[in-house]
Amino acid sequence: MKNKASAFIIQTTIFLGLLSALLVFIILARTPQDADMWWHLRAGQNMWQSKSILLTDTFSYTRAGQPWGNAFWVSEIVFYLSYKLGGFLALTCLVALVGALTFYFIYRRMEGNPFVNAFVIVLAVLTAAPIWSPRPQIFSFLILALLDGWLSKIQKGNQKWLWLLIPIFALWANIHGGWMWGFLLLAAHIAGMALNNLSKEKRGDIENWKFLLRLVFWSAAACLAIGLNPNGITIWRLPFYTASVSMQIQEWASPDFHLLEFQPLLWMVFLLVITAVLAKPKTNWGTLFKVLGFAYLTFVSARSIAVFAIIAAPVLAEWTNAAIENIKTDLAIHFDMSAGPLLSEKTNLVLNSVLLFIIGVTALGRAYLVSMPTEVNKNIPVAAVQWLKENPTGGNLFNSYNWGGYLTWALPQTPVFIDGRADLYGTELMNEWWNVVDGTPQGLEVLDRWKVQTILLEPSWPVIKLLPSMGWRKVYEDNMAVIFVKEK
Known about the structure:
The protein has 488 residues and is mainly α. It has two domains: 2-346, no CATH class; 380-486.
């Protein structure tokens, strides 16, 4: 009977893990509409066709030929090849699959009641969902989840593998700039271990201090390994410079908790506080530093929400399981999964397999539906771009910031004024763009200085009302976009 109960627990844990992964896939299988996705696709296409890494700007006329710190080149090729093989459906599946793998690995780390762990996984993915999109950052999320799990594991053994930090960060530096999150995680682990080693229980343990010194050494070596990329050690500048020039971009702002999509973040934070009180966990400074540190980043910038969800999920599962056990003890409640299944092992296996198959088919069906061209084209100026293809206007094009990436993909022969690469354009050019769309005198001078002949914008910008009186003629308009051409 005991063996049957044990087999039931293992089967339930595996089933809930796979079920959670499928639910994650369904939640993250969204229409590929991210504004930056398009220039990533264009860069991947450029590199695949030229068989060389793209390190200078070829998409705009405002930064043409200037060095571009392309820290995403591996990811961009992966995205382009996915699109080349299976179109938008393949992109949707790739993004959802990376999410499913990320949270499945997190689930595998969790101990305790598998139902509690599955609940935490679903809550974590709902928290991360608002910014989980077809961009290279999803690969950073996966690497961060693996790194956090690995760091937690090596503290209990296998410490000789610390040298793996070098290839991990060297690869990371060629995938996405999120390697900075990895160093913040290392810093939290190092600071936490130092304080843990000062506790009465560990103060005299020389081995703990030796391990800490080895972790510091290999972390420093990993810092140098970041330079193993086509951009060299200058890649270190990218995260700091990008943050400094991107504060006017919505995703870099604090989460707007009036929006329902950001509510799961609050639920996760509140549950962490409640379970910390009820579970009464033993003080672990590393856990405290990483949870509070990434929570701080999240409240400053919505861009870090998924990172917080990934780091906090294992902690929340541990504390929730402990809190439930404490409550059961206090209330003298007894529930034992070891009693075994109600149905036979084979029957359970068949039913679970059928359910997973049905949900798997549902997941693929959802991915197909959200990837239909009608869905992908909802928020991009397809008709306006088609008009430009059929009616070449000549001269330079001034474009919407949100559409710059799409234009690099859909109008590859027409250089843009700006796109989503904020680190390339810098504060000066972004301010010029704002001056133009706001219709300031300085903005109108910008149009003349850059010899702009065509303007493609959303109809709501203030400059749209000023253009007719400034020698510009409206040649196209729909509910989404308007095109003006300068009178000759």
